[in-house]
Amino acid sequence: MVAGAALGLLGACSSEDGTVATGASASSSASSNVLSSESLAQAMGGSETPLGLGCGWIAASDPDKANIAFPDSEAKYWVAAAPVSPQTRLRIDGRYPDARYFSYNAYDAALRPTDAVADFELTPSDQGREGNPFARKGAKPGGAYTAYLEYGASPVQNPEVQRKPNTFYTGEIGLGPLNIPNGLAVFIYRVYVSNAGEFFDGGVGLPALTLETADGSRELGTLPNCAEPFLPNFGGAAPPLGLNEVLLGLDYPNQLALPFPTATNPPNTLKFFSLSDTAFRIAGNVTGQDTSMLGGRVDSGSGGFLSNVHNAYTSTGFARRYGSIAMVRAKAPTYRGQPGVEFGQEQLRYWSLCGNEFATQRFTDCAADFQVPLDDQGFFTVVISDSADRPANATAENGFLWLPWGPYPDQLLLYRHMLHNPGFAEAIQNVEKGDALADVMKDFAPVGIYCDPNVFTQSNRSGEVFALCEQDQNTNR
Fold this sequence. Notes:
Blueprint: H1 2-16, H2 28-32, H3 37-44, E1 59-60, E2 75-83, E3 88-95, E4 99-107, E5 113-118, E6 144-150, E7 167-169, E8 172-175, E9 178-181, E10 184-194, E11 208-213, E12 219-223, H4 243-248, E13 269-271, H5 275-287, H6 292-297, E14 311-319, E15 326-331, E16 348-356, E17 363-368, E18 379-385, E19 400-404, E20 410-420, H7 437-441, E21 447-450, H8 453-456, H9 462-476
Parallel strand pairs: 6-7, 18-19
Antiparallel strand pairs: 1-2, 2-10, 3-6, 3-11, 4-5, 4-10, 8-9, 11-12, 13-14, 14-20, 15-18, 15-21, 16-17, 16-20
């Protein structure tokens, strides 16, 4: 149904292409081919239909039924598609959510981000309020803003492109040396750490989507809105399936026999750059050859797996054949809203740690910055194992964050850095291809190891345990 509406809008755009330039002098015959907001809403079944049927937002994330593309448990994702042409743009009317962060990212057919606009970049449309709460301390959520998705190259892909206020772009699809227009842009609305709202929308509902002429002089059609899209939960009406609990209950050796070559011994932590870079990394694990230089020579664009322009990621791969307990340790950055940290002085807007299955792209569990225990030195220490193999001293009181390994032989720990402060030189965003993580990130660089259970229990202090396990690994590998 949504696809039909999108095609209807696209048809309206096509009929409008020859008349947009004349503005108010457009012929009545052309106008009759344009879908009005009212007629489109009526065709779709009203302005807000039950169960999310006909909603402009096609789907939403759900950890139980739509846990894909390496999501974060503290984030909610809503997906829409916009048939945008040089003669049109998509207008997005929303309100600032009560949340840590929100944004819009556009994607190409390979699920690579082409452009994005962040919360703090969106000027409020109601100047009578206190302003944008993501840019101004003390401003309250709920104020209105208007964003635009426009056709064309993006500043993310081409720094020479000047960004219009409150605007992000469909971008271009990079095919090696070729760049072709991205006419049907899939885009995602993200909200992180929602403080209100039944559907984790920050208490303001979903933004309204309206296709209009490129100069904004005329609306071509407004898609009906909804509290929650139809997919995957029938507008929020479907109960949980309990799939996560079933999968996490499959402790080794009763796990699903689907090994994937993401891991090395000792573990290797790398920044995520692109799909091709990841593919060559896996090929190197399979063949035992250094393929990093080949990955750097193949230009497949940046990002992938519906990644967020405002995030940078590292990944550390583990395999059960090398050990039943995996660990990662690093110094923790400060974050927005952290006690004792002034607004705007934080090193990152947000950071998180997620255990993932590479083959399925689902998370087994995540911990956001405010949920991660730190030791007296300000470091976090992650322990990954089956519940049956969890050491008794791997507790939050001892400075450990425990994450379940999951049902597969391999485990991938993703570490996110979001919207780094320009003064935070150790952010993942500052790691370039060819850089060693430790050279740039210093103490903030995540280090992965395997640990013998007998060594793990020799101390209750997380820093001491990690040092003992690292020494044992280096001695006995």
